[in-house]
Every structure is written in C-alpha cells, then in structure tokens.
Automatic annotation (TrEMBL):
The gene is nifU. It comes from Bianquea renquensis. It comes from the Bacteria. It holds the Pfam family NifU_N. CDD domains: IscU_like. GO terms for biological process: iron-sulfur cluster assembly. SUPFAM superfamilies: SufE/NifU. GO terms for molecular function: iron ion binding; iron-sulfur cluster binding. The lineage of its organism: Bacteria, Bacillati, Bacillota, Clostridia, Eubacteriales. This is Fe-S cluster assembly scaffold protein NifU.
Length: 142
C-alpha cells in the first residue's frame, strides 16, 4: 500500500521534464525491474537553481524522482550529495519493501548528475564517488 504522499507525487509529479542546457545530467537504471531515471541539474555558484527528471518506471519510481528533485532544489551541491534514499523514503512517508530500490535510483541519479556537473566544471565534490549505471551494483554491496 502506498502513502498519500507517494500517490500525490505519482499523480502530480513535480519538476518533470528536462533542462536543455543542463550543467549536470545523471542516468541510472535497474536491470532487474527495468526502471530508468535521468536527473538534470542547473547550478549557479554551487547552488542547484533548477532540477528536472525523466523517469521510465513504476509509480514509486516517478514518486521518488519527484520527491528527490524537490529535496535538492535550492541546496548546494554538497547538501544535495547528502540526500539519501532513506531521506527520500521518509519524505514520502515510506515505501513498500519491494519498492525501496526506487528510492535508491533517485539517490544515485542525483549523484550521477552531480558527478557529471563536477566533471564538466573540473571540480571535486567531497565524498562524491563515480556513478553506477545499474543500482544492482549497490544493492549487491548492501
């Protein structure tokens, strides 16, 4: 059963779309379920001014994308890096256990977009690791 917040973000997603001249773009997927998430960032002076997403996946994947974008807009790149899948789930009042991987997709798509931003601007973001293409790599570690 999904929370009201999950249903709201699925039915009325925030920040859906793309940013043509994005400063950072990150794409991750999950081969097991077929979900793919792409996050676009517009950054000025180290602060995320705009963020959009495109997600191919289930309702939980759309909802976690929507919530994650709301959580990083207006934040510094360092603050955005600290947005975890657990924080996304809490902000949505939880997810069913079989949908936890959707929140991990959102976290990793943000990290991948931050990585792309850092590479394009030749900067280092403390604690940022190279992105994964498939979150199964992370799920296997945990």
């Amino acid at each position: 059963m999904y929370s009201e917040k999950v249903m709201d973000h699925f039915m009325n997603p925030r920040n859906m779309g793309e940013i043509e001249d994005a400063d950072g773009v990150g794409t991750v997927g999950n081969a097991k379920c077929g979900d793919i998430m792409r996050i676009f960032l517009k950054v000025e002076d180290g602060v995320i001014q705009d963020v959009k997403f495109k997600t191919f996946g289930c309702g939980a994947a759309v909802a976690t994308s929507s919530m994650a974008t709301e959580m990083v807009v207006g934040k510094t790149v360092e603050e955005a890096l600290k947005v975890t899948n657990k924080a996304v789930m809490e902000a949505l009042d939880g997810l069913p256990p079989v949908k936890v991987h959707c929140s991990l997709l959102a976290e990793q798509a943000i990290h991948a977009a931050l990585w792309d931003y850092a590479q394009k601007h030749n900067i280092t973001i403390e604690g940022l690791k190279p992105p994964v293409e498939d979150i199964e790599e992370i799920e296997e570690e945990e």
